[in-house]
């Protein structure tokens, strides 16, 4: 008989001879499945968040803003850090890399722990780690060693906050509505990422660099209050001992240690040690072998693997994760070095350099929000992925035009296009990955997207530092400058401004850096 709200539902009448009964049952099952799919689509389209859901979204937005600020706030501060701690530009480089490295490697394991111990509990633990790291960085750190430790602890907390935001959203918001509402959290993250250099510049010019970390304390306090009261999600009630027994400790240790070794090798290459040396080859090799071993453990041995093989069951899923990695790589290659272009090539103040990155923010946020709304309405996302990559490719190529005399309207438009492109990608890739995943894997798929994006950011900063530092050292040595300057170019930006022969050096090195970003983008598009 005909159903008034959907497709025809066939009622199977048994045949006298029993012939064709299996086919009739199969056809009826298909009709019922289609009806359930239609009803589910209607429920998703009509879903509206209540007060509890809005409270969770607001909490995630606040702490995501905090994490994003912390990831980029040191961009304008690195030269000052190198001077105050008596370190080199390599030490300053590790101030950012140590955070991104620990932020990336812990994310998949934290997502798995949340399945066992609960979403709220792991989010709370992440905020506590972030707060502890902030304390180590600001009031306590008197040397780069303590500072690096604080940044690494912050990174663990930041990684947990990022991945738990993705997982919790997958729990409470239907897929069709996810792009629209996740734009709240994504917008806060994007805003923090680009406000970071400006705020860091203001602090280093008018107060002191440690205020970059004191700024976190109000956010940390707010997060510690909001998470217990606002994030109320159901959790399986079992004993703590049984939960500990379920954790894939061996797989988690193998993966985290291997990824750390690999990223340290990539970060050292060409910055602290030459490519091909044992100090670079050994950690990279150990990392690759360890990652392969952890994958084998997850697939063949682990009883409850923290890395689900089903996340990589199709070429579409693998392609989507690789896109997320390259997008993070290219985004942070620019966010870390565009402010340096303004300070070293155009001789802008740290505050002005941070302000000049605003075109990225002003267009990334609207681009992300518009794409979120369109994706929710149309139910399609591939057009946004392709459109975003085209805009990113064009803007990356045009970065080579940046020199001392580039007109404001030119660099502002290029950065605006760069922001629009990344705004389109941030939303569409995230939604695409969850759309092609199994329903039961939605949370883990979202967490894997966050991991791949953060991994790309970490690799992007490392590769950018390698390319830029090597070129700077070579060019400054050619000018006959002392080794103290040629091997510590970032820490001596103020001194090098007064040396007329060095004026084009930063520009030349940055041009090669932009060109390398274009090459990485070409690899992804191919």
UniProtKB/TrEMBL annotation:
InterPro entries: MFS, MFS_dom, MFS_trans_sf, Sugar_transporter_CS
Gene3D superfamilies the UniProt entry points to: MFS general substrate transporter like domains (1.20.1250.20), Multidrug resistance protein D (1.20.1720.10)
Keywords: Membrane, Transmembrane, Transmembrane helix
The keyword rRNA processing appears for this protein: no
Bilayer topology term: Multi-pass membrane protein
Hydrolase in keyword set: no
A single GO molecular function term of this UniProt record: transmembrane transporter activity
Pfam annotation, one family: MFS_1
Domain Major facilitator superfamily (MFS) profile: 56-526
Subcellular location(s) per record: Membrane
Coiled-coil region: none
Transmembrane segments: 54-80, 92-110, 122-141, 147-169, 181-202, 208-231, 252-275, 281-300, 312-337, 383-402, 408-433, 445-468
GO annotation, cellular component aspect: plasma membrane
Protein name in UniProt: Major facilitator superfamily domain-containing protein
Organism: Apodospora peruviana
Taxon lineage: Eukaryota, Fungi, Dikarya, Ascomycota, Pezizomycotina
């Amino acid at each position: 008989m005909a159903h008034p709200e959907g497709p025809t539902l066939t009622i199977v009448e048994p045949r006298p001879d029993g012939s064709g009964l299996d086919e009739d049952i199969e056809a009826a099952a298909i009709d019922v499945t289609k009806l359930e799919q239609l009803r589910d689509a209607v429920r998703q389209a009509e879903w509206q968040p209540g007060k509890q859901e809005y409270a969770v979204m607001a909490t995630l937005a606040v702490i995501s803003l905090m994490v994003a600020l912390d990831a980029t706030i040191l961009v304008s501060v690195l030269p000052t850090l190198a001077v105050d701690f008596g370190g080199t530009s390599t030490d300053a480089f590790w101030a950012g890399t140590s955070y991104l490295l620990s932020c990336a490697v812990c994310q998949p394991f934290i997502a798995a722990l949340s399945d066992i111990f609960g979403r709220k509990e792991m989010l709370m633990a992440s905020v506590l780690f972030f707060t502890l790291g902030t304390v180590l960085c600001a009031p306590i750190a008197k040397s780069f060693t303590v500072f690096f430790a604080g940044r690494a602890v912050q990174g663990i907390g930041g990684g947990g906050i990022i991945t738990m935001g993705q997982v919790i959203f997958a729990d409470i918001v239907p897929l069709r509505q996810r792009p629209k509402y996740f734009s709240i959290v994504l917008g806060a993250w994007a805003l923090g990422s680009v406000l970071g250099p400006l705020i860091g510049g203001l602090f280093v010019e008018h107060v002191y660099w440690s205020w970059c970390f004191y700024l976190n304390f109000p956010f940390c306090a707010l997060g510690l209050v909001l998470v217990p009261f606002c994030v109320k999600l159901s959790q399986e009630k079992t004993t703590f001992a049984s939960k500990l027994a379920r954790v894939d400790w061996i797989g988690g240790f193998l993966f985290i240690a291997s990824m750390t070794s690999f990223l340290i090798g990539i970060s050292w290459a060409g910055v602290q040690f030459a490519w091909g040396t044992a100090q670079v080859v050994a950690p990279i090799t150990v990392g690759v072998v360890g990652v392969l071993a952890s994958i084998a453990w997850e697939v063949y041995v682990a009883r409850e693997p923290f890395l689900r093989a089903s996340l990589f069951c199709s070429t579409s899923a693998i392609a989507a994760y690789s896109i997320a990695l390259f997008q993070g790589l290219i985004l942070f290659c620019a966010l870390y070095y565009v402010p340096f272009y303004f300070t070293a090539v155009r001789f802008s103040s740290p505050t002005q350099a941070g302000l000049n990155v605003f075109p990225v923010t002003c267009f990334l946020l609207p681009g992300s929000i518009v794409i979120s709304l369109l994706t929710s309405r149309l139910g399609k996302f591939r057009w946004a992925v392709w459109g975003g990559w085209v805009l990113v490719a064009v803007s990356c190529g045009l970065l080579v035009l940046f020199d001392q005399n580039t007109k404001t309207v030119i660099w502002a438009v290029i950065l605006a296009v760069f922001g629009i492109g990344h705004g389109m990608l941030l939303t569409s890739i995230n939604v695409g990955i969850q759309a092609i995943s199994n329903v039961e894997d939605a949370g883990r798929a979202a967490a894997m997207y966050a991991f791949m994006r953060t991994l790309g950011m970490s690799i992007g900063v490392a590769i950018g530092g390698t390319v830029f530092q090597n070129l700077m050292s070579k060019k400054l040595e050619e000018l006959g400058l002392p080794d103290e300057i040629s091997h510590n170019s970032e820490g001596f930006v103020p001194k090098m401004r007064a040396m007329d022969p060095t004026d084009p050096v930063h520009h030349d090195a940055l041009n090669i850096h932009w060109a390398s970003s274009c090459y990485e983008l070409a690899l992804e598009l191919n």
